[in-house]
Amino acid sequence: MPFTRNYHTHTYRCKHAKGDVSDYCREAVAQGFTVLGMSDHTALPDNRWLGVRMDFRELPGYCKAIDDAREAFPELAVLKGMECEFADSYTSFYRDTLLDELGFDYLIGAAHFFPLNGEWVGSYGGADTAAGLRAYADYFIESMESGLFAFMAHPDLFGNCYHTWDANTASAAEDIFSAAAALKMPLEINGYGLRKPLIDTPEGKRRMYPWLPFWELASDYDVTVVVNSDAHRPQDVGSNLSEAAAIGKRYGLQFADLDHLEARCGKPEIV
User: pLDDT tens for residues 207-217?
Assistant: First the structure.
């Protein structure tokens, strides 16, 4: 069955992607999509981590680009979203400004950065020790508990730097799955990781993520999953969705229903 929905899409504004909203919409229509969620790395009021996200001043332009695309591509449900790192100081901005005032359809939670020993560190390196991995898992769970997010992106992102599946990874994963099940929070099997180069580990070459032992362990828990391409180029809007879904099917995981997100954008749910 062909995939016709993707909820994880970036634009040039994050400084490590190409194309604007209309470019992705045009490609999505050409590939037969019915739903496209735009979810660039969120602007932040204090412009934190500005090297990998839009400047706060670009937020109105991002919103306008999505609004314009909704008019230009009436055959496509274009959803307005952001990919966010959680912090208590951003809660009001996410809830009151993005979701309520600006009418965003959804937010994605992520842990590209997380607090460790009183400092924010990047997950591409910061989770390479047992202590770092534990801090990553604790932060990921705290993000889920905030209630702000429709789903959580690439929960196994720590696999890019923690190279061995061991008791530490199993413990972190088990805690993430237990919390996700209790909170009914979908977890994403991320297609972008399937397009990244293989890494060398003591166990041989593998993908940074999705990390298969992580998803195999997920089958022991009542969690749901979503698959997205995490597109950073228009041509990748539908890339690796089938392969990501195959991982979920391989381990008998239940796929989450995100149909309700379309209702917020003013278009009927698509059956």
Answer: 999 999 999 99
What is the architecture of the domain spanning 5-264? Alpha-Beta Barrel (3.20)
What residues contact 153, with CB distance under 8 A and at least 6 apart?
8, 83, 108, 109, 110, 188, 190, 228, 230
Rounded CA-CA distance 40/83 in Å is 6
What is 114-151 written as a DSSP string? EEETTEEEEHHHHTSSHHHHHHHHHHHHHHHHTS--SE
Q: What is the pLDDT of residues 70-104, one digit of tens each?
A: 999 999 999 999 999 999 999 999 999 999 999 99
Rounded-to-integer distance, Cα 124 and Cα 236, Å: 22
Whole-model pTM over 0.85: yes
Collapsing DSSP to helix, strand or coil, 113 comes out as: strand
Average pLDDT, the chain: 95
Long-range contacts of 240-244 (CB under 8 A, 24+ apart): 240/191, 240/192, 240/194, 240/195, 241/3, 241/6, 241/191, 242/3, 243/191, 243/194, 244/189, 244/190, 244/191, 244/194, 244/210
253 neighbors 218 (Cβ within 8 angstroms): yes
User: What pLDDT is recorded for position 265?
Assistant: 56
Instruction: Report residue 110 as tokens.
Output: 């992520």
Instruction: Return the SS3 of 226.
Output: strand
Q: How many CA within 13 A on the CB side of residue 6?
A: 33
Share of the chain above pLDDT 70, in %: 96
Report the amino acid identity of residue 23: D
Number of neighbouring beta carbons within 10 Å of residue 191: 26
